[in-house]
Amino acid sequence: MNLPETPDQALEKRWSARLLDVFIRAGLVLAMTMLCYKIFSPFLPLMLWALILAVTLYPIHRQIARRLGGKEGLAATLLVLVGIVLIVAPTSVLLSSLGDSTYDLVNHVRDNTLRIPEPSPRVADWPIVGNKVHRLWSEMHSDLPVVVQSMQPKIGHLARQSLDIVAGTGSKVLQFLFSFILAGVIMAFGESGTKAAQAIFERIIGIDRGKGFAHLSTATIRTVAAGVLGIAAVQALLIGSALLLAGIPFAGILSLVALVFGIAQLPALLVTLPVIGYIWYSGDYGTGAAVGYTVLLLVCGTVDNVLKPLLLGRGVEAPMPVILLGALGGMATTGILGMFIGATLLALGYQIFMWWVANNPDARAGQDPPPAA
């Protein structure tokens, strides 16, 4: 004999059925999300970099489109072509120089054909490290193979890492090229993209705060990309081009060091001044050529002082350590492109987090009401 269900039993059965339905739906959504991410993950760095480029260059795209009578597609095409000529081509040359310099250095060390010039006696007078540098330099000048042999494990490890980095530079350049083209497509549909981004933020955060977060994200990307990364990249390209013009060895490596220094807000003169010293010390340059290259390197090393007031404006609303950690972490994760993506994303995340902290509703509720007028 079946007893009739009590109201509590019926309610429990309905809740159990609904809870099971919720778990099944949540599991299906999670599985779909994981599958979509797995399929899309190979293109995620490409899309992130394209989005950063599109957001950064969109104001310039709008100006070009207005002059072309509102032709968004034509403006995007022209901007992409100009960017490829001014950015991708010099970058490819510098990366090629970086690869050649690394291969030549590894081959010279392996074949014992690398020659180190004799140090100047003035090196020993350098404070703190002068004697040690002069002694090591003298040993490398007199018997480099012995020094290399004593440091063989470390040198072998560094050589393998350097060759791996050089081998991946070609794919990074192609990835940057495709992301630039994709950024042009995104800019061609900029209006609809802006509305879609705002709608996404409103759906996630709420209508009241969605528009503010969308504006904050766009402003942070543009400020970091143009004010910090853009200046560092432009200065590194100028320094690299000057080094190639002057015939300085390892121009690609030195330009990469200048790029890292620029992101870390360190003066690029730390790279150009030793090169100027090499030009005058080596004796391979005439007086006129040495003076010309010195002036050129000094100008390239201080060009950030001119670009910062033009591009940086009021400054980056994120501490420099945040940008530096993002850049170095991104470079360690995904290479040169990751340097730009990491700095931008970490600065954006910092801004969003601090905006959230500053807009604490409990803190505002606890404040005393303003006095009556």
Detailed description of the structure:
This protein has helices at residues 7-40, 44-67, 72-111, 130-142, 144-150, 152-188, 190-205, 207-246, 251-263, 269-282, 287-301, 304-312, 320-334, 336-358, 361-365. The protein has 373 residues and is an all-alpha fold. The chain has a domain at 206-355. Helix 3 (72-111) packs across helix 8 (207-246) and helix 4 crosses helix 5. The protein is elongated.
Jot down its keywords:
mainly alpha, 15 helices, elongated
Separate helix tally: 15
Give the overall pLDDT as a whole number: 76
Rounded to the nearest angstrom, the radius of gyration is: 28 Å
Query: In angstroms, what separates the terminal alpha carbons?
Result: 78 Å
The helix-strand sequence is HHHHHHHHHHHHHHH
Q: Which spans of ≥5 residues are poorly predicted at pLDDT below 50?
A: none
Main sheet makeup:
none
- Decide which structural class fits the backbone: mainly alpha
Q: What sort of overall outline do the alpha carbons produce when their principal axes are compared?
A: elongated
